[in-house]
Amino acid sequence: MLIKIAKPHDLRDSDVTPESVYLSRRRFMGGMAGLGAGLALGGPAHAGANYADVPEGNGPAWLKKKIDDTHWKAVTPANSEKDTLAPFDDASGYNNFYEFGSGKADPARRAGSLKTQPWSVVIDGEVNNGGRFALEDLASPSRFEERIYRLRCVEAWSMVIPWLGIPLAEVIRRAEPTSRARYVRFETLVDPEQMPGQRSAFSLIDWPYVEGLRLDEAMHPLTLLAMGMYGRELPNQNGAPLRLVVPWKYGFKSIKSIVRISLVEEQPLNSWQQIAPEEYGFYANVNPRVDHPRWSQATERRLPNSLFSPNTIDTLMFNGYADEVAELYAGMDLRTHY
Ligand SMILES: Nc1nc2c(c(=O)[nH]1)N[C@H]1C(S)=C(S)[C@@H](COP(=O)(O)O)O[C@H]1N2
Ligand SMILES: [Mo]
């Protein structure tokens, strides 16, 4: 089931939001005043959120240092009273990561077995400057930024999460795509010893988990390669040490624990499209007017919620980022290209 069972303290949103997160949100909203909603790249750096209640991560020293040096340049989702940050415990306890099982609590329970150090990423295909890069070398030329984004799962729940990372565009530019590159294809690690979901004979997914973007989507300034969240390293269950975040698309596009990024000529076949092409497409743009064949996409349950307070809100076109991304799809029939 998709509705989260109420914990005794889940009475109201404001009761479960840690004070530090509230403070940082208020500081953040204050910092955004005068900039208007939407993309504020180049806006004034905000003071940096104080995620005092978030536990220490166990990432490498270089990553802790990069997080400390983060350019606190938050990008807000469209302003709405409902856009409070999800408590860290919800964002790191209610996950989809089928490599660790299909239940929402499985990744938090089982992803401890994922070894994230050392980690390297292969960049290949239609590039002049590809190769295998240690994660530190991939990250080091870029400064970290904080991005506060909505994450809207195709299953019609959502959360607001503060990510830390670098624009994917910077990594792609450094790889020097050839003129033939039209799409970007991503792969997650395959290692059944570390990933119990890959040992299951009943798994739907033909591993590796694969995702893809059109090159212009990948180069869009909102598209982030995240290495942290809530002012610390990514927890394993959220896709450590490197995951994609594409905030205007359904969550399944935001592939976790990436080991390969390929620039390609042909549109990649992403895992969910391969499993059920009539239900999940390549584009997967959040769209309240195009329903999933088995449920409506007009509304969503904003977490944290409870049985008594489902916290249902209207889903916004492109998840609220239409001003930034609608032009990417000008002239396209979004009903056909779902
Ligand atoms: N490799 C991999 N990436 C994945 C998934 C997955 O099962 N495997 N699930 C996706 C789905 S359906 C969603 S909604 C988001 C959830 O991200 P979160 O757990 O950090 O909120 O991760 C996406 N990335
Ligand atoms: Mo999802």
Walkthrough of the structure:
The protein has helices at 13-16, 19-32, 61-68, 88-91, 106-110, 135-139, 168-175, 215-218, 271-275, 322-325; strands spanning 120-125, 131-134, 145-152, 157-167, 183-188, 210-214, 224-229, 232-233, 243-245, 258-264, 299-302, 312-314. A hairpin with a 4-residue loop joins β3 and β4 (157-167). Helix content is 18%, strand content 19%. The chain has a single domain, classed as Sulfite Oxidase, Chain A, domain 2 (Alpha-Beta Complex), CATH 3.90.420. The protein is built from 10 helices and 12 strands. The protein is of the alpha+beta class. The strands form 2 sheets. Strands 3, 4, 7, 8, 9, 11 and 12 form a 7-stranded mixed sheet that branches. The radius of gyration is 19 Å and the shape is globular. Mean pLDDT is 86; it is low at 1-48. The ligand Nc1nc2c(c(=O)[nH]1)N[C@H]1C(S)=C(S)[C@@H](COP(=O)(O)O)O[C@H]1N2 is lined by residues 95-99, 151, 153, 188, 209, 238-239, 251-252, 254-257.
